[in-house]
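Whiteboard transcription, Tuesday session. T.W. wrote the C-alpha coordinates on the left side:
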Protein backbone atom coordinates (compact mmCIF):
# COMPACT_ATOMS: atom_id res chain seq x y z
CA UNK A 1 0.00 0.00 0.00
CA UNK A 2 1.36 3.38 -0.97
CA UNK A 3 1.21 5.95 1.80
CA UNK A 4 -0.62 9.15 0.94
CA UNK A 5 1.21 12.36 1.67
CA UNK A 6 -0.75 15.50 2.26
CA UNK A 7 0.10 18.81 0.61
CA UNK A 8 0.75 21.78 2.86
CA UNK A 9 1.48 25.40 2.08
CA UNK A 10 2.30 28.44 4.12
CA UNK A 11 -0.43 30.96 4.71
CA UNK A 12 -0.23 34.17 2.75
CA UNK A 13 1.52 36.89 4.67
CA UNK A 14 0.29 40.43 4.38
CA UNK A 15 2.61 43.42 4.23
CA UNK A 16 2.27 47.07 5.14
CA UNK A 17 3.93 48.00 1.84
CA UNK A 18 3.14 47.04 -1.72
CA UNK A 19 6.11 46.21 -3.92
CA UNK A 20 4.13 47.34 -6.95
CA UNK A 21 2.84 50.80 -7.73
CA UNK A 22 -0.83 51.70 -7.46
CA UNK A 23 -1.95 55.08 -8.80
CA UNK A 24 -3.37 57.47 -6.20
CA UNK A 25 -4.41 61.10 -6.32
CA UNK A 26 -1.03 62.08 -4.84
CA UNK A 27 1.17 59.58 -6.67
CA UNK A 28 0.54 58.97 -10.36
CA UNK A 29 2.48 59.52 -13.60
CA UNK A 30 0.43 62.58 -14.59
CA UNK A 31 1.90 64.62 -11.70
CA UNK A 32 4.85 66.55 -13.19
CA UNK A 33 8.32 66.33 -11.71
CA UNK A 34 11.75 67.48 -12.81
CA UNK A 35 14.93 68.51 -11.06
CA UNK A 36 15.23 72.20 -10.24
CA UNK A 37 18.28 74.11 -11.43
CA UNK A 38 20.40 73.34 -8.37
CA UNK A 39 19.51 69.64 -8.24
CA UNK A 40 20.02 69.22 -11.99
CA UNK A 41 23.50 70.69 -11.65
CA UNK A 42 24.29 68.15 -8.92
CA UNK A 43 22.89 65.34 -11.06
CA UNK A 44 24.98 66.33 -14.06
CA UNK A 45 28.10 66.38 -11.89
CA UNK A 46 27.34 62.86 -10.62
CA UNK A 47 26.62 61.55 -14.12
CA UNK A 48 29.92 62.98 -15.38
CA UNK A 49 31.79 60.50 -13.18
CA UNK A 50 30.60 57.59 -15.31
CA UNK A 51 31.35 56.65 -18.94
CA UNK A 52 28.40 57.67 -21.17
CA UNK A 53 27.41 54.05 -21.81
CA UNK A 54 27.30 53.35 -18.06
CA UNK A 55 25.56 56.47 -16.75
CA UNK A 56 22.69 54.30 -15.50
CA UNK A 57 25.06 53.42 -12.63
CA UNK A 58 24.13 56.83 -11.21
CA UNK A 59 20.57 55.70 -10.52
CA UNK A 60 20.95 55.43 -6.74
CA UNK A 61 22.45 58.91 -6.14
CA UNK A 62 19.94 60.44 -8.57
CA UNK A 63 17.01 58.81 -6.81
CA UNK A 64 18.43 60.22 -3.58
CA UNK A 65 18.49 63.70 -5.12
CA UNK A 66 14.91 63.24 -6.28
CA UNK A 67 13.81 62.09 -2.84
CA UNK A 68 15.40 65.11 -1.20
CA UNK A 69 13.77 67.54 -3.62
CA UNK A 70 10.42 65.76 -3.34
CA UNK A 71 10.03 66.26 0.42
CA UNK A 72 11.61 62.99 1.45
CA UNK A 73 10.01 60.41 -0.86
CA UNK A 74 10.26 59.08 -4.42
CA UNK A 75 7.01 59.20 -6.35
CA UNK A 76 6.39 57.36 -9.62
CA UNK A 77 7.03 60.68 -11.38
CA UNK A 78 10.45 60.99 -9.71
CA UNK A 79 11.33 57.48 -10.84
CA UNK A 80 10.15 58.11 -14.40
CA UNK A 81 12.14 61.33 -14.58
CA UNK A 82 15.32 59.63 -13.38
CA UNK A 83 14.79 56.84 -15.91
CA UNK A 84 14.44 59.38 -18.72
CA UNK A 85 17.48 61.35 -17.59
CA UNK A 86 19.64 58.21 -17.46
CA UNK A 87 18.11 56.72 -20.63
CA UNK A 88 17.21 53.46 -18.94
CA UNK A 89 13.96 51.46 -18.77
CA UNK A 90 11.66 52.79 -16.03
CA UNK A 91 11.27 49.25 -14.67
CA UNK A 92 14.98 49.17 -13.82
CA UNK A 93 14.52 52.31 -11.73
CA UNK A 94 11.42 50.84 -10.04
CA UNK A 95 13.46 47.77 -9.12
CA UNK A 96 16.10 49.90 -7.38
CA UNK A 97 13.61 52.13 -5.57
CA UNK A 98 11.61 49.17 -4.27
CA UNK A 99 14.68 47.18 -3.20
CA UNK A 100 16.56 49.71 -1.06
CA UNK A 101 14.90 50.75 2.18
CA UNK A 102 16.59 54.16 2.01
CA UNK A 103 13.97 55.15 -0.56
CA UNK A 104 10.51 56.04 0.71
CA UNK A 105 7.77 55.35 -1.83
CA UNK A 106 5.11 56.99 0.31
CA UNK A 107 5.11 60.55 1.72
CA UNK A 108 6.84 61.04 5.07
CA UNK A 109 6.86 63.82 7.61
CA UNK A 110 9.30 66.71 7.65
CA UNK A 111 11.26 64.89 10.36
CA UNK A 112 11.67 61.24 9.37
CA UNK A 113 12.42 59.37 12.60
CA UNK A 114 14.09 55.98 12.19
CA UNK A 115 14.50 54.21 15.52
CA UNK A 116 16.89 51.26 15.72
CA UNK A 117 15.34 48.41 17.71
CA UNK A 118 17.84 45.62 17.02
CA UNK A 119 19.78 43.82 19.76
CA UNK A 120 22.51 46.39 20.73
CA UNK A 121 19.98 49.22 20.94
CA UNK A 122 17.47 47.02 22.73
CA UNK A 123 20.07 46.12 25.38
CA UNK A 124 22.07 49.36 25.50
CA UNK A 125 21.39 52.07 28.04
CA UNK A 126 17.70 52.24 28.92
CA UNK A 127 16.82 50.15 25.87
CA UNK A 128 15.15 50.99 22.58
CA UNK A 129 11.79 49.66 23.79
CA UNK A 130 11.44 52.50 26.27
CA UNK A 131 12.55 54.99 23.59
CA UNK A 132 9.92 53.66 21.19
CA UNK A 133 7.24 53.95 23.84
CA UNK A 134 8.40 57.48 24.65
CA UNK A 135 8.27 58.60 21.00
CA UNK A 136 4.86 57.04 20.38
CA UNK A 137 3.38 58.59 23.51
CA UNK A 138 4.95 62.01 22.96
CA UNK A 139 3.98 62.27 19.30
CA UNK A 140 0.66 60.48 19.61
CA UNK A 141 1.39 58.02 16.81
CA UNK A 142 2.40 54.39 16.41
CA UNK A 143 5.32 52.91 14.50
CA UNK A 144 4.72 53.41 10.77
CA UNK A 145 2.47 56.44 11.21
CA UNK A 146 2.78 60.18 10.55
CA UNK A 147 1.55 62.95 12.83
CA UNK A 148 -1.49 64.92 11.67
CA UNK A 149 0.62 68.04 11.21
CA UNK A 150 2.96 66.10 8.88
CA UNK A 151 5.98 67.01 11.01
CA UNK A 152 7.00 63.50 12.12
CA UNK A 153 6.99 60.00 10.67
CA UNK A 154 8.16 57.16 12.90
CA UNK A 155 9.45 53.76 11.78
CA UNK A 156 11.51 50.96 13.32
CA UNK A 157 14.66 50.00 11.41
CA UNK A 158 17.49 47.51 11.48
CA UNK A 159 20.98 48.40 12.74
CA UNK A 160 22.15 51.88 11.77
CA UNK A 161 25.76 51.23 12.76
CA UNK A 162 25.96 53.24 15.98
CA UNK A 163 25.90 50.26 18.34
CA UNK A 164 28.43 51.75 20.79
CA UNK A 165 26.05 54.66 21.32
CA UNK A 166 22.87 52.70 21.87
CA UNK A 167 20.02 53.39 22.00
CA UNK A 168 19.88 55.76 19.05
CA UNK A 169 17.65 57.12 16.31
CA UNK A 170 18.25 58.77 12.97
CA UNK A 171 16.22 61.85 12.05
CA UNK A 172 16.66 62.71 8.38
CA UNK A 173 20.47 62.74 7.99
CA UNK A 174 21.42 63.12 11.67
CA UNK A 175 22.11 60.55 14.39
CA UNK A 176 20.94 61.14 17.96
CA UNK A 177 22.65 58.72 20.33
CA UNK A 178 22.89 57.68 23.98
CA UNK A 179 19.18 58.40 24.27
CA UNK A 180 17.06 58.36 27.40
CA UNK A 181 13.32 59.08 27.49
CA UNK A 182 14.11 62.59 28.72
CA UNK A 183 16.67 63.44 26.03
CA UNK A 184 14.45 61.88 23.37
CA UNK A 185 11.64 64.26 24.26
CA UNK A 186 14.12 67.14 24.28
CA UNK A 187 15.24 66.29 20.72
CA UNK A 188 11.67 65.92 19.45
CA UNK A 189 10.55 69.21 21.01
CA UNK A 190 13.53 71.06 19.55
CA UNK A 191 12.76 69.68 16.09
CA UNK A 192 9.09 70.55 16.42
CA UNK A 193 9.89 74.12 17.45
CA UNK A 194 12.60 74.61 14.83
CA UNK A 195 15.27 75.03 17.48
CA UNK A 196 18.89 73.91 16.99
CA UNK A 197 19.77 70.56 18.52
CA UNK A 198 23.24 69.07 18.33
CA UNK A 199 23.39 65.62 16.69
CA UNK A 200 25.48 62.82 18.16
CA UNK A 201 25.57 61.62 21.78
CA UNK A 202 22.94 63.25 23.96
CA UNK A 203 25.03 62.34 27.00
CA UNK A 204 28.22 63.92 28.29
CA UNK A 205 30.59 61.70 26.34
CA UNK A 206 32.38 62.61 23.13
CA UNK A 207 31.74 60.53 20.01
CA UNK A 208 31.79 56.79 20.85
CA UNK A 209 34.42 56.77 23.58
CA UNK A 210 33.71 54.47 26.56
CA UNK A 211 30.90 55.75 28.75
CA UNK A 212 33.28 55.63 31.71
CA UNK A 213 35.85 57.80 29.95
CA UNK A 214 38.81 57.28 27.62
CA UNK A 215 41.06 54.32 28.25
CA UNK A 216 43.45 54.70 25.30
CA UNK A 217 45.30 57.52 23.53
CA UNK A 218 45.29 59.55 26.72
CA UNK A 219 48.90 60.75 26.39
CA UNK A 220 50.77 62.81 23.83
CA UNK A 221 51.32 60.89 20.56
CA UNK A 222 54.76 59.31 20.04
CA UNK A 223 55.40 61.28 16.85
CA UNK A 224 54.94 64.59 18.67
CA UNK A 225 57.30 63.59 21.51
CA UNK A 226 60.14 62.62 19.18
CA UNK A 227 59.65 65.23 16.49
CA UNK A 228 59.03 62.67 13.80
CA UNK A 229 58.68 64.40 10.45
CA UNK A 230 55.14 64.45 9.12
CA UNK A 231 54.61 63.78 5.45
CA UNK A 232 52.44 66.15 3.46
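and on the right, the sequence the group agreed on:
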Amino acid sequence: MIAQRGFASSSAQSSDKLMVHRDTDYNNPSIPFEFNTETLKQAEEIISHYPPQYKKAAVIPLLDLGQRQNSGWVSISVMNYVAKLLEMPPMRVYEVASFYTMFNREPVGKHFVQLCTTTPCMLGGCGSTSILETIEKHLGIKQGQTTDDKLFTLIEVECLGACANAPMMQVNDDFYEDLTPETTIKVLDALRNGQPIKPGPQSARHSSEPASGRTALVSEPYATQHNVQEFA
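Someone added at the bottom: The first strand starts at residue 111 and ends at 116.
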